Here is the input.
Amino acid sequence: MSYFDDLKFDAQGLITAVVVDDATGDVLMVAHMNAEAVQRTVETMVATFWSRSRQTLWVKGEQSGHQQVVHAIRTDCDKDVLLLRVTLRGPGACHKGFRSCFSWQLSDAGDWQLVEEQVFDPQAAYGRQ
Amino acid sequence: MSYFDDLKFDAQGLITAVVVDDATGDVLMVAHMNAEAVQRTVETMVATFWSRSRQTLWVKGEQSGHQQVVHAIRTDCDKDVLLLRVTLRGPGACHKGFRSCFSWQLSDAGDWQLVEEQVFDPQAAYGRQ
Here is the structure.
C-alpha cells in the first residue's frame, strides 16, 4: 500500500497541511490539499495546495516567486493532517508580507497584536495589500 | 472588538488549532475548537478542544493526565487557524504513545515510516492501543 492510500481526506476531498520552516522550525502557514495537490507535492517536492477560495490547484509562490521547497513530509497518527518541512525561496510565506502567517498574538488586553515585522512588500509581490 | 469576534469559524462552527511544543518548537498535534473550546482555552490557559469523533468538549489530557499548559496563542493572517505554544504535563501529546502525533515520515520507498520512539505506554495512559 502506498502512502497515498493511507491518507484520510475530508468530505470535501481535502487534507490539512501544516508548513514548517526548515530553517527556524516555525510554523509558516496552514493550507489544504486535494488528492492532486498531494501527488504534485510529492512528485515535485514543491509545495502545492488546493485554493478553497479560488477552487483551483495552487503552486505556492506561483505569483510572488516565493516557492516552498519540501524537504520532508510527515503525517500524524490519524493520517488526516500532513506536515511539510520546507525551505522558502524568498523572504516569506504570508501574503501580507510576513515570514509566517502566524504573526498575531493574543495580548493580555484580549486582542490580536501584530508581533512580527514585515519582511517584504506584499503589494510588490502580489499586487495587493 | 475582542479577539473572539475576529476569528473565523468554519461551516461546522470549528477552527483548526495547531499545537506547538514550547520546549522543542515541534508541532505536537492538530485539533479543532468550537467557540466554547476557544473561550475555555483562553480563560484557563489549558488546551481544550472539540472532539469531532465524540462530539463533546475535550480538555486534552483529561484521561491521560497529559494536559497542555498554554503559554501563547497566535492566529494567522486569515484569522481561521490558531497556534498554541504549550508545555506538556506528561511525556507526550499523541494517543499512540509518542511525544508528537507527527511521527510518521514519507520514505523514499513511498510509504509512511515511523521515525520516532514511543515515550509512554498508551494502553496504560488511555486503556487502549
